[in-house]
Protein backbone atom coordinates (compact mmCIF):
# COMPACT_ATOMS: atom_id res chain seq x y z
CA UNK A 1 0.00 0.00 0.00
CA UNK A 2 2.85 2.38 0.87
CA UNK A 3 4.27 2.24 -2.66
CA UNK A 4 0.89 3.07 -4.16
CA UNK A 5 0.48 6.04 -1.82
CA UNK A 6 3.96 7.30 -2.68
CA UNK A 7 3.17 6.92 -6.38
CA UNK A 8 0.05 9.06 -5.94
CA UNK A 9 1.94 11.67 -3.92
CA UNK A 10 4.69 11.89 -6.53
CA UNK A 11 2.07 12.33 -9.26
CA UNK A 12 0.71 15.34 -7.37
CA UNK A 13 4.06 16.83 -6.28
CA UNK A 14 7.07 15.16 -7.86
CA UNK A 15 9.53 17.28 -5.88
CA UNK A 16 8.20 16.46 -2.41
CA UNK A 17 10.17 14.43 0.13
CA UNK A 18 7.13 12.54 1.39
CA UNK A 19 9.09 9.72 3.00
CA UNK A 20 10.84 12.04 5.46
CA UNK A 21 8.09 14.59 6.15
CA UNK A 22 5.92 14.19 9.25
CA UNK A 23 3.47 16.92 8.16
CA UNK A 24 2.92 17.33 4.43
CA UNK A 25 0.79 20.44 4.85
CA UNK A 26 3.05 22.27 7.32
CA UNK A 27 6.09 21.39 5.20
CA UNK A 28 4.42 22.88 2.11
CA UNK A 29 4.23 19.58 0.22
CA UNK A 30 0.42 19.60 -0.12
CA UNK A 31 -2.12 22.38 -0.30
CA UNK A 32 -5.90 22.05 -0.59
CA UNK A 33 -5.83 21.82 -4.40
CA UNK A 34 -3.15 19.14 -4.28
CA UNK A 35 -5.16 17.17 -1.72
CA UNK A 36 -8.07 17.08 -4.15
CA UNK A 37 -5.72 15.85 -6.89
CA UNK A 38 -4.24 13.30 -4.48
CA UNK A 39 -7.71 11.94 -3.72
CA UNK A 40 -8.26 11.36 -7.43
CA UNK A 41 -4.88 9.61 -7.79
CA UNK A 42 -5.53 7.40 -4.76
CA UNK A 43 -8.99 6.48 -6.03
CA UNK A 44 -7.51 5.43 -9.37
CA UNK A 45 -4.61 3.47 -7.90
CA UNK A 46 -6.62 1.66 -5.23
CA UNK A 47 -9.94 1.37 -7.15
CA UNK A 48 -12.03 2.97 -4.46
CA UNK A 49 -14.06 6.11 -3.84
CA UNK A 50 -13.09 8.35 -0.94
CA UNK A 51 -16.11 9.96 0.70
CA UNK A 52 -16.24 13.74 0.78
CA UNK A 53 -16.51 13.64 4.57
CA UNK A 54 -13.07 11.99 4.67
CA UNK A 55 -11.36 14.68 2.61
CA UNK A 56 -9.95 16.50 5.62
CA UNK A 57 -6.39 17.79 6.03
CA UNK A 58 -5.75 15.53 9.01
CA UNK A 59 -6.34 12.47 6.80
CA UNK A 60 -3.58 13.57 4.41
CA UNK A 61 -1.00 14.97 6.83
CA UNK A 62 1.53 12.13 6.42
CA UNK A 63 1.97 8.59 5.10
CA UNK A 64 0.57 7.02 8.26
CA UNK A 65 -2.62 9.11 8.14
CA UNK A 66 -3.22 8.28 4.48
CA UNK A 67 -2.57 4.60 5.15
CA UNK A 68 -5.10 4.58 8.02
CA UNK A 69 -7.66 6.30 5.80
CA UNK A 70 -7.25 3.81 2.96
CA UNK A 71 -7.22 0.80 5.30
CA UNK A 72 -10.67 1.89 6.45
CA UNK A 73 -11.90 1.45 2.89
CA UNK A 74 -10.27 -1.96 2.44
CA UNK A 75 -11.90 -3.53 5.53
Regions with little confidence, pLDDT below 50 for 5+ residues: none
The overall average pLDDT, rounded, is 97
Output the radius of gyration: 11 Å
Tell me about the largest β-sheet: none
- SS summary, helix count: 3
Residue share in helices? 40-55%
Order of helices and strands: HHH
Structural class of the helix and strand makeup?
A: mainly alpha
- The number of E-state strands comes to 0
Shape: globular
Tell me the strand percentage band.
Answer: under 5%
> First CA to last CA: what distance?
14 Å
Task: Describe, in plain words, how this protein is organized in 3D.
Helix 1 crosses helix 2 (32-46). The chain has three helices and no strands. The chain has helices spanning 2-12, 32-46, 63-74. The two termini are 14 Å apart. The protein is mostly helical.
Task: Describe the structure concisely.
The chain has 75 residues and is mostly helical. The protein has helices at 2-12, 32-46, 63-74.
Keywords:
globular; mainly alpha; 75 residues
Blueprint (SSEs and pairs):
Elements: H1 2-12, H2 32-46, H3 63-74
Helix pairs in contact: 1-2
Amino acid sequence: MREGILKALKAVNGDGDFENSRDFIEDGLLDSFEIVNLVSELEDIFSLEIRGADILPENFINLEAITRLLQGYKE
